[in-house]
Write a structure and sequence with these properties.
Length: 400
């Protein structure tokens, strides 16, 4: 049967194809570039070796010999796959060891790992809350949290970004909800600013709300020993549901929830993404566990990252760039419009700095940007070199 002329699926596919083609024709398309190789802080794309400034590997642990060795040993011992879902035949000793390690690192009774950070947020939010409840989310929370809220069928309320007065208003408005869950990112993934955890904890306690915090960008990044947002503020044990990913600072894949044993047990038996989706492969599990050990045994990675963040942010501000309220390795360089963001990325890559842009509607209109990530893999010399290149290009393009 012929498809209808107003077929919505065909129209959506066609519209996207046209948008992509338009950017590609201007030679300003930089998504999906395949890395041919990487070494240390460098990446090679299309034969060009560039300094990597777009990585989420905040502590520079990709390729760490202990982590690579753990992954290889796990393949030798347990093969490349599993026998299915965790709750049936998929659990290995390695999964148990990783969950114990995460719990001890985060100072909780237990933890559960799922197949990605995205899936962890989706599964946790949608399992814990339901009709009659309210889930309250910061407006700049990650898409995976938003999707979990939408899937839950609870009332989905949002408050203005990091605005405590607005959070309080929302909590008061839903005072009669059966239960309340407040969810926030610890570090916001577009702006690099840090959530006001102490005030949120106080508000949640005052209003009898549960608190869940996504530590995708704070694990290994914040706190003297890299334990994250609670260590940063010196309020250990303040968060009910601690979420994180194993794909950023931790050079593996997966997501976790750390918390009380009964919370974790509830997720292990009721979260559909855990019960109906295969276990993480042994190599990734072993790599993740070894990564937590490396963070504990080699404290200099965290120290070096924190020094690099300060050096890079200071350097950009001194040169007149607008980096919003970033205090972390996620550094927005605001260009204002899309055209200048695209032009800066093109010129930076030609000059040997691998950075990428974030455009509207991923960020509010007028705040198009380069999103630059500094890591512990960079030497101060490499950062200084990048600063000089970004300054020169910023002047040419008219951002500073
Ligand atoms: C990256 C990210 C996730 C998703 O993690 P993955 O492991 O990549 O699926 C969740 N939350 C935040 C804030 C993130 O930045």
């Amino acid at each position: 049967m012929a498809k209808q002329t107003n077929d919505g699926i065909a129209r959506r596919i066609q519209e996207m194809a046209e948008r992509v083609k338009a950017v590609q024709e201007q030679e300003l398309y930089f998504y999906l570039q395949a890395a041919e190789a990487w070494d240390g802080a460098h990446v090679t794309v299309n034969g060009r070796r560039m300094l990597q400034f777009a990585s989420y590997g905040y502590l520079g642990l990709l390729g760490h010999p202990k982590i690579n060795a753990a992954a290889k040993k796990a393949i030798n011992d347990f093969s490349s796959g599993t026998h299915g879902v965790r709750i049936l035949a998929g659990t290995t000793l390695l999964h148990e060891e990783l969950e114990a390690k995460i719990a001890s690192f985060k100072g909780t009774e237990a933890s559960i790992v799922l197949s990605s950070g995205y899936v962890t947020n989706l599964a946790t939010v949608s399992t814990l809350i339901s009709k009659g409840d309210v889930v309250i989310s910061d407006k700049l929370n990650h898409a995976s949290i938003v999707d979990g809220c939408l899937l839950s069928r609870a009332k989905f309320a949002r408050f203005r970004h990091n605005d405590m007065a607005d959070l309080e208003r929302v909590l008061e408005r839903y005072a009669s909800a059966a239960s309340k869950l407040v969810v926030v990112d610890a570090v916001f993934s577009m702006d690099g600013d840090i959530v006001n955890l102490p005030d949120i904890v106080a508000l949640c306690r005052q209003h009898g709300a549960w608190l869940m915090v996504d530590e995708a960008h704070s694990l290994g990044v914040l706190g003297e020993t890299g334990r994250g947002i609670e260590e940063h503020f010196g309020i250990e044990g303040a968060i009910d549901i601690k979420m994180g990913t194993l794909s950023k600072t931790i050079p593996s894949v997966g997501g976790y929830i750390a918390g009380d044993a009964e919370l974790v047990s509830c997720l292990k038996h009721a979260a559909r993404a855990f019960v109906f989706s295969a276990a993480l492969p042994p190599a990734q599990v072993a790599a993740a566990k070894a990564s937590f050990e490396v963070i504990e045994e080699e404290p200099w990675h965290v120290q070096r990252l924190q020094r690099n963040v300060e050096f890079f942010l200071d350097g950009l501000k001194t040169r007149g760039f607008n980096t919003m309220n970033s205090q972390t390795p996620i550094v927005p360089i605001i260009t204002g419009d899309d055209a200048r963001a695209m032009q800066m990325v093109k010129m930076c890559q030609e000059a040997g700095i691998f950075v990428l842009y974030v455009l509207h509607p991923a960020v509010p209109l007028g705040t198009s940007r380069l999103r630059v990530n500094v890591t512990a893999a960079h030497t101060q010399k490499e950062i200084a070199q990048a600063l000089d290149i970004i300054e020169r290009i910023g002047q040419v393009v008219g951002v500073i």
